[in-house]
Amino acid sequence: MNTQRENATTSDEKLPSQILVALSSLDAGTASEIQAILVALVTGMKHVLGNQLVGLYLTGSLSYGDFDVQSSDIDFIAILSSSLTGSQRKDLAEMHDRVGEIYPKWEKRIDGSYLTSDMLTSTDPPKEARPFVNGGEFRNPDPVYGYNWAPDMYNLRNHGLALYGSEPRLV
Predict the structure, then answer these.
(1) Which end of the chain lies in a sparser environment, N or C, as judged by fewer CB atoms within 10 Å?
(2) Which phi and psi (to 5°) does residue 32 adopt?
(3) How many alpha carbons lie under 13 Å from residue 126 in its C-beta half-sphere?
(4) What string of H, E and C letters represents the secondary structure of 105-136?
(5) Strand order in 53-59's β-sheet?
(6) What are the pLDDT digits (tens) for 147-157?
């Protein structure tokens, strides 16, 4: 298991400094573990999606300084240039499973949406469903956005931290 952890976190990926600042309020062990998870997510998504990945953003309590180690999730929003294919979804599900196996404490606490750039053009919630990871697994069927669209977009643009891609206020 230790070898898996080393393999998952050994990467040329470097997290932006604002992410490291966000993690600095946590104890060293937790910060290191979350940092490794974020690197694994960035590396895995870039591997599966390539240029289709427009941006990956840390959102939720970790991005705005209200993270509780006992109860908070690691929340993300991935922005894509086009919808996921079936094989990409399968590969991403496997990547999320691997991260959960390596970091079992966080397995059910990694949540995020895979949105296309087109979904961001309106303040109204998109009518189409979006792939959504909740509790470490893709929801099936994909849920549509509801009441949480406006708060999620506000959080993304005002508190989101770019793991990959341009600043969130620009998306």
Answers:
(1) N
(2) -65, -40
(3) 19
(4) HHCCCEEEEEEEHHHHHCCCCCCCCCCEEECC
(5) 137-138, 132-134, 110-116, 74-80, 53-59, 161-164
(6) 999 999 999 99
DSSP one-letter code for 164: E
> Cα(25)–Cα(10) distance, rounded to whole angstroms?
23
Predicted pLDDT of residue 4 = 34
C-alpha 139/C-alpha 144 separation (Å) is: 11
CA distance 161 to 15: 10
Q: What is the pLDDT of residue 8?
A: 35
The CA dihedral of 10, 12, 16, 17, to the nearest 10 degrees, is: 70
pLDDT for res 46? 97
**Per the structure block, which two tokens stand in for 32?**
């290191």
C-beta separation of 56 from 78 below 8 A: yes
Of 56, 45, 111, 98, give the one whose Cα is nearest residue 78: 56
Type of residue numbered 48: V
